[in-house]
Amino acid sequence: MSDLLERLRGRGWRVTAQRRVVAEVLDGDHIHLTADEVLERATARLPEISRATVYNTLGELVTLGEVVEVTTDGRAKRYDPNAHRPHQHLVCSGCGIIRDVHPAGDPLADLPDAERFGFDVSAAEVTYRGLCPDCARG
Ligand SMILES: [Zn+2]
Ligand SMILES: [Zn+2]
Questions:
Q1: pLDDT tens digit string along 77-124?
Q2: Most buried by CB count within 10 Å: which residue of 19, 26, 39, 119?
Q3: Ligand 1 geometric centre to CA of 93 (Å)
Q4: 57 is in an annotated binding site
Q5: Which residues bind Zn(2+) (predicted)?
Q6: Per-residue DSSP letter, 72
Q7: Residue 135, annotated ligand binder?
Q8: CATH number listed for the domain at residues 3-80
Q9: For residue 77, what pLDDT is reported?
Q10: Where are the domains of the chain?
C-alpha cells in the first residue's frame, strides 16, 4: 500500500487510474525521479497514460506539498515523495545516485544566530557528495 496514496486519499484527492499510477510510481524510500522517469514508469504500468497527465499530476502534488522538488546536479528537477520526513541528500559524484540521509544534527537549528543576518530562516538543504561504493571501486 502506498503511503503517498494514503496521504492523498486522506486529503480528499480525486484518485483516477492515471493519477493513482503517478502516486504509486513515486512511492517509497530514496525515490528521486525526473518527470521523464516518472512518465516512463507510469507508461509501463498504464500504457494509455498521457505525458500531460503525468506532468500536471506532478505539479499538483508539489502544490499540495506532498511531493518536493529536488535539484542536486543543477540539471533536471527530481520528485521526492518524502515531503513529510525531513531529510537531506547524499549524492554520488560519479553515477548521480541519490540517497535520503538523516544527519544527527538539525541543519536549520545548527546555524548560529550571528550568521542569520536578521533572516527569519525557515529551511535548510544540505547535500553531501562523494563516491558510492560501486564508483569508488571503478
Ligand atoms: Zn556512484
Ligand atoms: Zn529525498
A1: 999 998 888 899 999 999 989 999 999 999 999 999 999 999 999 989
A2: 26
A3: 6
A4: no
A5: 92, 95, 132, 135
A6: S
A7: yes
A8: 1.10.10.10
A9: 92
A10: 3-80, 88-137
Decide if pLDDT at 22 tops 50: yes
Who contacts 92 (Cβ-Cβ below 8 Å, separation ≥6)?
A: 98, 129, 130, 131, 132, 135
CATH class of the domain defined by 88-137: alpha beta
132 known ligand binder: yes
Distance 9 CA to ligand 2 centre (A): 22
Three cell numbers at 90?
Answer: 547524499
Q: In what order do the strands lie in the sheet with 88-92?
A: 98-101, 88-92, 127-130
CA neighbor of 124 nearest in space, from 134, 111, 137: 111
- Residue 56 backbone dihedrals phi, psi, to 5 degrees: -65, -40
